[in-house]
Amino acid sequence: MNIVSRFSFGLGLVLLASCAEPQPERSLELTPVTYAMLDGWTAETPQTLLPILRAECQRLMRLPPETHLGGVAQTIPNGSSAGDWAGACAALQTVPADPQSARSYFEQWFAPYLVSDNALYTGYYEPQIYASAVRQGEFQTPLYAQPDDLVRTKDTAGDWVTGRWDNGKFVPYYTRAEIDHGALDNRGLEIAWLRSPEDLFFMQIQGSGRLVMTDGSVRRMGFAAKNGAPYVPIGRILVARGDMAASDVSLQTLRAWLAAHPDRAQELMEQNPDYVFFKRIDTIPLDRGAPGSMGIPLTPGRSVAIDHNILPMGVPVWVEAQIPLARGGEGRWTHLTFAQDAGSDVKGAGRADLFTGWGDEAEHVAGKLRSHGRMIVLLPHPPA
Q: What are the angstrom distances between the C-alpha of 234 and each of 214, 249, 251?
């Protein structure tokens, strides 16, 4: 996926979205601030961020200057169009990779604006799941590639819709329940076979994953398409049913509930009709993350998913929040990240999903991260 084709990525572990939170604010108010107001800016290591920004610039400078990168254009002073980045990207090419030069570059070419004093941060990660190339033994759950009859087009109102043609009529694509009950059987769409529907479900929530095959090899799977059905958080359903307290919802507690209620697990997961299809990605080394909405590999702790209707893709985002620690508890976390992804359940100003990487620690942090803090966006200055 890339920023000129689509933004919907199906990411974000907001398993309880809007159950206890206020409705997201769709408008954007930016307040100019100074770098001195960024808590922890002098302790940041900006030189380590130059390669990430250079990868963004390579992407952005290949786009027509008028390409809209998202965001509330009338509220954003600069940075919502690809051409707005020309000056910052040109200057980046000659910045030495030392801390002072990198810090001076950001301070010279990017203006900080406060987005929210009460931003909500959650996390997402790249699951590692055991899989088999063939159906055998415990590996009975198919991981599907994008079906050839899945169509994404514009309706008469000019809005994008997803579905399929049935006897000359455009209809919604199969739901999760219909697919679970055989709608895609015998079509040769199986990329691999997983050990459980729960493994598939949580991989679909994240939008990508790594398959550890029975021969020990690792295959990366990336987002290919969605069926177009709305995303319904199962945590919200459990809370509404009285099966779980809102404050207890996390990736870990949801996995535990599904494991403890095998007779009810499939019915609950099918309450979320959203379904994600995958494709194999062999072009990105396994020491880097899967590509986000910009088509750039995500960097653990440095990439965030945002609402592209509010903020432009690519902008640096200063995060001030509490983050779960692997050894337990929480720690203060203040770092510069980049808006390189967009989540279907990341809505409103002051809202971001932090990419935590892959492996057990990444899953732990992503599953427990739910923190309120400050969000400051750095907008590029216009070209001279």
A: 30, 10, 11
